[in-house]
Amino acid sequence: MGELRLEELSARNIVAANSLSLKPGQELYIAPVSYAVAVSVINPATAWQRVVLLDGEVAGFIHGNFDPDSQHEEFRACIWRINVDASAQGKGVGKFAADALAEEARKRGFDHITVIWEPGEEGPESFFHRIGFVDIGETAYGETIGSLKL
Description:
InterPro entries: Acyl_CoA_acyltransferase (IPR016181), GNAT_dom (IPR000182)
Helix content: 10-25%
Radius of gyration: 14 Å
Protein name: GNAT family N-acetyltransferase
Low-confidence stretches: none
Domain N-acetyltransferase: 4-150
Distance between the termini: 25 Å
């Protein structure tokens, strides 16, 4: 495994973050409906966005949200989006990003983080289960809500 490190999303790395490739079929699972609906009420000041560098190259992106006052518990400390380039999948990039967000949540006083995903064969469910998330419910749109105790 190569060297992994985080860097804040910036003008210097945003093009690379936006250019991450996916494996065939994964594009269907980029953003659950719940996130698309909630994005209009999310406060940009609560966003936590980082790229993951693998051996100095952008290999992943994670967007978290930390808003202890959110009306929706599942959005208080959550993974909003996580993308790992197709060529870097299976190399620990996604787990590294999720662990970093979990550590940030701990520092901010949260005892768990959440994530929402759409069920499906090519979707992220098995990844989230592998790194310790457990299913705790469903959204109004039939998506799974997962939680990771910190």
